[in-house]
Structure formats: C-alpha cells, structure tokens
C-alpha cells in the first residue's frame, strides 16, 4: 500500500496553517500573539476560534469534543461531550462556544490529588493550553475533537503533569535569556527546551496475552521460567522486521503522522519481540503530548493486528526491559541550539558556560533527577544489567571530558582531541571522519553531539516529570550564573572563572566508564553520589529543603504540590505492588497449584498402575520426578500461605511512606519467594498440562 506522507501528515491537527486559512486575519493574529507571548484571548475571539475548530472537526467526522488532559495517573484523561445543542424550531444545531473551548469544570475527586483536594472540594478546572494544537482522534467511540488543557484545582494548584511543565519552560526560558543577553544576543525572545523521546515496547500475540492474568492485570509477567533461547545471540537487535510486526509499524506510522507526530525511526530492539520508535524532536510540551498519544496509538493499533503492545518497563524477567530515552536540548526561537559545541568547543565560552551549569545542576540535584524517572515498573530495570544504573552521572565523551579536565587543571591553552579518521581497512570503502564521542550505553545521562540523552525514564511513564526536573535544575544553575555575571565588571574573565569553578566543583558527576560494574557503585559512593536503588528511596528527594527552594523559587511547584506528588508516588507504589501480589496469589491458587496437583496425582496413579502391571519395571525416573515436583509444590504452597497474612499486616501500617517501605522490603521478597518454586515447576511439568503460555510462547510466537 503506498502512502503519501505529505498528504496525511498533520491532517488531523488544527494547526497554525489551518487556523490561518479558517480564521479572520485579526483573530488569527490575536491567537498567534497569545500562543507566542502568553496572555489571554478575548471571549469574542474564543467564540470565533471555537466555531472554526468545530466546523473543521465536524468536516473530519467528529461528533464530540473533549478537554484532553494529563492527570497525575501518568496517562491522559478525556470526557466526551457532543456538539449537540437543544433543538430549536426542530432544527438540530452543532455548537462549540468560546467558553467551552477555554475552560471546563469537572468533578476531580476521582483523580489522584495527594490530598490537594478532598472530595467535598471536588471541583477541578481544565483550561485550554494554546501552545499545544487541538486535534481529532479517530476511535471506535467516534471521532473526537481533543482540546489539550491543563488541569488545576479550585485554588489553582496543579492536578496534572502539564501545568508544572509549562511553568518550568517559562523558568528556563527566562534564565537562559539572561545568559544570552550577557553574550550580546538581543535577537532571541525565548529559549525553548527541545525533546525527542525514543519509545521502546514489546508486542505479544493477543490470544496468548489473554491467557495470562498477570499480563492483563499488571502489564508484566509475574511468573515464567526463562525460555531456552533469550537474547544472547543478539540476533534481534536491528534484525529484519517480521511481516506481522512490520504491518503494525506501517499502520502505526500512518496514525501518528495524521496526528502530526513525526515518527521517523523504527527498529527491532535487543530482546525478542521488543521494538523501538523514535519521533523527530520538537518543543518540550508538545513532545510530552505526542508521546502520550504515541503510547495510546501503539496500544490501539496493536489490537487491530491481533497483538497487544506492552509498554511495561519489564514485561519479562531475564531479558532487556523497555525505557524511553529522553533527548533534551535548549534552543532559541531564532534557531540557535545552546548545546551545540561547534567545531571548537574549547573556544566556545557560551557553550562551556552552559555545559558547566548543566554539570552543576545534575550534580546538585542528582537525587531529584533520579526521582523524576521513578515509576513502579522501573524498579525492575534501573540498576539491572541493561538499563542505566540508579546512580546519576554524566558521560561527556572523550573530547569534551578532556576539555573539562584541562579547564579544571588550569591548562594554559585548551587543546581539542582530534576526532580522527575511521579507516576500515577495506580499500573500496572511503576513510570516514569519526564522531568525537563513542556511545556509552551504560550511562544515564549522555552528551550526544548537541543534546543530552537522559536514559532512565521508564517506557510506560510520562516524560513530563523528567523534563520538569531538567528544565528546573538547569534554570537554577543558569540563574546562579547570571546573578554573578550580571554584576561582574569584566564579563569575560568572570565567565572563564565561573566555568572553572563550576567544572572543578562538580567534576565528580562526570563518569565515562562502565556504569554496570560493581567498581562504579563503590567509586560513586566514594565520590558521594547518591545511589537511590528504589522509587521508595527516591521519593523523599521531592520534598527536601533544596528541592522546595528550587521549585518554589521559579514558581514551578508549591510546597504542598510537592508533598502531594510525593504522597501519590508512595500510594501508587503500594497499589501497583498490591495488585501484583494479589495477581500472584490468584494465579498460584487458581492456575498453578491445581495444575500441579492434578499432574502429580496422574503421575502417582501411573506409577501405581505400571508397577502393578509390571512389578520389575524401573520406575525411578517417575518417582524422582514425583518427589521433585512435590517438593516445589510444597514450597509454593508455603510461600503462598506466608504472602497472604503478610499483606494484611503491611496494609494496616499507618502512613503511606512507611507502608510503601514495608511493601518494598517485605512484600516484594515474599513475592519472589512464591515465584521461584513455580518457575522451577514450569520446567518439570508436562508442557501440555501447563496452564499458561510460557516465555518461549510469548516472545517467539509473535
Ligand atoms: P542517537 O543516535 O544519538 O540516539 P538520534 O539522531 O537517533 O540520536 O536521535 C534520537 C532522538 O533525539 C530523536 O528523537 C531525535 O529527533 C532527537 N534529537 C536530535 N537532536 C535533538 C536535539 N537537538 N534536541 C533534542 N532532541 C534531539
Ligand atoms: Mg538514542
């Protein structure tokens, strides 16, 4: 099937071009002005825009509209209302008013608020975020006009992920502009964080998925012995894409392109049945919206192909999990990337200053950055032998690291390592010039040419939190720098001195070696870098004095918003772990144990009947198997008996923090203790009797 990308790209987006075409000139100008410079549009303008938006959407087949927002569940929310109005003179009219466009009021009491709003103060308000374009979504429930909004409480506290993100973008813009002005840049009006997020995912056959209660309820397998083949041959990574997966990808691309999402890269990932999609980067708030839409679209399109898309960070034990590399840079509205080192970074004072500020930001707030990538699924990934470790460090690559070294050691003139030539030794292949940096797959925060790649974020998680944190911590470091430099009598010497100071003080955050090694864990401890192994350990970073000072200074979060978020993280950890434990109890009692009991009964009966028929037959194999299986069965039953009362005890602990900690330190090990004998049984019991598809079935039969 041939597709004309230019024809379908953005066709479902109420873009600037559509507005230019459909709005009266004056109205269009007013809207653009508010989009670029902030402020409010008048209600008259809103009426005209709403009407044009409705007409456009109805032409696309839309019957309903919704305010589309991102509550603290980490996914998106929508409530559809049709365009219908009360019939007048027996005529049915379709309508969207300016008021309906700009603001919505809904009962927010069933969304997590972390105590920001109790049920008797239930009002939540959605307000149009004009910086994200409206779009229509084609769903089985109908074609819906989606209006991106923020979501706040009656008192204006953020109840969503978008509000703080927009606040953090303002903060970094203001602070970065101060720095640019010092370097004589008077043209830039705004500095905008740019984000491209690579999305990893697994596909699984839907029929098989539906036979696994763990996948259905939790998105990951809670039991499962390793299959004979895993990822050790490395034959999946960048391998040829199988037809069924390929047709999913082709379909996905088209759906994303219609929504204006520039899906560009697609490939097989390391683990069997694991894949990746990367879009072209765009401004941070739009990238967050687009990533949410991408995840949603992946799930929807998979169903059409008889597949299920697993976005969980660790669907299968023993093979790679999924993450989301968050590529981040900051650029001006005039197109300058502040993270572009140019050909001579050693002489690029502005770049070096920004770099030194980022080193400072990441070092000072390593705990916060780690926290921003915490979600329950990431517990099984960070620190495992595949994802970045839970210790935050920066990898700059050889060339920049050497520049930093020379600056720190006060070298007289700073030399640049030659990036060198790449000679393959094949005479017909030209000698190429090599990148200045090799890739370091083990680092959580890598400089990759003209951007930083934050690799910790989980595949199912919203990228909003990570970007709020990046924007905020870098804004603070830039602000500190501007405070000093604006007062300096001699700007250029003060600037060099500040670069030296920042780099010297925060050089400990630079690490170019193997982040998976035990030696790094020891070395990081020696350097005093935090190693927050679990989400439960990372949450307190949100409410330290340092964090509260940072976020309140730039108006990104109030203290109570931070406390609310911490509480929600603990609550979510408890709820998710509890669902997982309950699912394990369910599967062990309803699937595995009964299966194993019938199997052992049949085995015992066959031993009895064979020995009756043939007393001299050697039944040692059968007897040994029966003993082994019965041993594991009793281990499984014991573990099950311990898990149930343990959960009851833990559930009665007062305080979400304490309860979350108990789930992590007591319930999680008890879950592991139940998994172990059941996985062992899977390898002993007849495959045809096993009640659920195995790892081999799930990963190799897609
Ligand atoms: P890499 O090979 O280093 O992973 P890619 O070119 O594949 O880099 O890009 C990965 C992601 O980074 C893509 O989504 C891409 O659009 C995005 N990206 C590229 N340049 C920038 C930039 N300056 N700022 C933010 N994201 C960027
Ligand atoms: Mg990458």
What does this structure look like?
By secondary structure, the protein is of the alpha+beta class. The chain folds into three domains: 5-159, Ubiquitin-like (UB roll), CATH 3.10.20.70; 168-423 and 430-557, 2-Layer Sandwich (Creatine Kinase, Chain A, domain 2), CATH 3.30.590; 573-700, Four Helix Bundle (Hemerythrin (Met), subunit A), CATH 1.20.120. It has 22 helices and 18 strands. The strands form three sheets. Strands 8, 9, 10, 11, 12, 13, 14, 17 and 18 form a nine-stranded mixed beta sheet that branches. Strands 1, 2, 3, 4, 5, 6 and 7 form a seven-stranded mixed beta sheet that branches. Strands 15-16 form a two-stranded antiparallel sheet. Helix 11 packs across helix 14 (464-485), helix 12 (366-372) packs antiparallel against helix 14 (464-485) and helix 19 (559-613) runs parallel beside helix 21. The model has no long low-confidence stretch (mean pLDDT 93). The site of adenosine-5'-diphosphate (ADP) has 16 residues, from strand 8, strand 10 and strand 13. Adenosine-5'-diphosphate (ADP) binds next to strand 8, strand 10 and strand 13.
């Amino acid at each position: 099937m041939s597709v004309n990308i230019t024809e379908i790209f953005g066709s479902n987006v109420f873009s600037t071009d559509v507005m230019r075409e459909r709005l009266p000139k004056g109205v269009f100008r007013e809207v653009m002005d508010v989009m670029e410079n902030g402020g409010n549009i008048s209600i008259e303008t809103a009426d005209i825009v709403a009407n044009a938006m409705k007409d456009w959407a109805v032409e696309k087949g839309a019957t309903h509209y919704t305010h589309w927002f991102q509550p603290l569940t980490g996914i998106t929310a929508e409530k559809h209302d049709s365009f219908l109005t009360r019939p007048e003179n027996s005529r049915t009219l379709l309508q969207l008013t300016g008021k309906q466009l700009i603001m919505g009021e809904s009962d927010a009491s069933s969304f997590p608020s972390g105590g920001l709003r109790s049920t008797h103060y239930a009002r939540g308000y959605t307000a149009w975020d004009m910086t994200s374009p409206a779009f229509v979504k084609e769903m089985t429930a109908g074609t819906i006009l989606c209006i991106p909004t923020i979501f706040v409480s009656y008192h204006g506290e953020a109840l969503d992920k978008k509000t703080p993100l927009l606040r953090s973008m303002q903060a970094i813009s203001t602070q970065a502009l101060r720095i640019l002005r010092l370097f004589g840049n008077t043209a830039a009006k705004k500095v905008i964080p740019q984000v491209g997020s690579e999305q990893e995912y697994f596909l699984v056959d839907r029929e098989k998925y539906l036979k696994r209660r763990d996948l259905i309820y939790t998105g990951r397998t809670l039991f499962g012995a390793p299959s004979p083949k895993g990822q050790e041959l490395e034959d999946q990574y960048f391998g040829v894409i199988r037809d069924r997966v390929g047709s999913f990808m082709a379909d996905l691309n088209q759906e994303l392109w219609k929504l204006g999402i520039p899906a560009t890269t697609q490939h097989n990932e390391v683990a069997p049945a694991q894949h990746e999609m990367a879009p072209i980067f765009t401004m941070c708030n739009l990238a967050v919206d687009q990533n949410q839409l991408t995840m949603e679209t992946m799930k929807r399109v998979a169903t059409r192909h008889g597949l299920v898309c697993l976005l969980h960070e660790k669907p299968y034990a023993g093979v790679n999990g999924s993450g989301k590399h968050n590529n981040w840079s900051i650029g001006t509205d005039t197109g300058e990337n502040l993270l572009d080192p140019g050909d001579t970074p050693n002489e690029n004072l502005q770049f070096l200053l920004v770099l030194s500020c980022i080193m400072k930001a990441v070092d000072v707030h390593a705990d916060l950055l780690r926290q921003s990538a915490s979600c329950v699924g990431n517990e099984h990934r960070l620190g495992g032998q595949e994802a970045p470790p839970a210790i935050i460090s920066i990898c700059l690559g050889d060339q920049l690291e050497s520049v930093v070294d020379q600056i720190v050691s006060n070298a007289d003139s700073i030399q640049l390592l030659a990036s060198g030539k790449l000679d393959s030794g094949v005479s017909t292949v030209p000698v190429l010039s090599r990148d200045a940096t090799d890739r370091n797959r083990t680092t959580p925060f890598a400089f990759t040419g003209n951007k930083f790649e934050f690799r910790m974020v989980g595949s199912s998680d919203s990228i909003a939190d990570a970007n709020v944190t990046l924007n905020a911590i870098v804004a603070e470091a830039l602000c500190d720098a501007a405070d000093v430099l604006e007062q300096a009598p001699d700007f250029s010497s003060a600037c060099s001195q500040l670069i030296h100071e920042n780099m010297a003080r925060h050089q400990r955050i630079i690490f170019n070696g193997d982040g998976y090694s035990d030696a790094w864990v020891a070395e990081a401890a020696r350097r005093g870098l935090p190693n927050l192994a679990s989400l439960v350990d990372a949450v307190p970073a949100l409410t330290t004095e340092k964090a509260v000072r940072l976020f309140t200074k730039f108006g990104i979060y109030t203290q109570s918003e931070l406390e609310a978020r911490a509480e929600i993280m603990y609550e979510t950890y408890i709820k998710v772990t509890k669902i997982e434990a309950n699912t394990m109890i369910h599967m062990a009692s309803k699937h595995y144990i009964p299966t194993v009991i019938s199997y052992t009964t049949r085995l015992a009966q066959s031993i009895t009947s064979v020995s009756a028929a043939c007393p001299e037959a050697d039944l040692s194999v059968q007897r040994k198997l029966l003993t082994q299986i019965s041993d594991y069965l009793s281990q499984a039953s014991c573990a099950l008996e311990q898990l149930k009362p343990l959960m009851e005890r833990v559930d009665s602990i007062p305080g979400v923090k304490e309860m979350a900690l108990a789930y992590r330190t007591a319930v999680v090990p008890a879950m592991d203790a139940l998994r172990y004998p059941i996985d062992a049984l899977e390898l002993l019991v007849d495959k045809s009797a096993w009640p659920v598809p195995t790892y081999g079935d799930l990963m190799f039969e897609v």
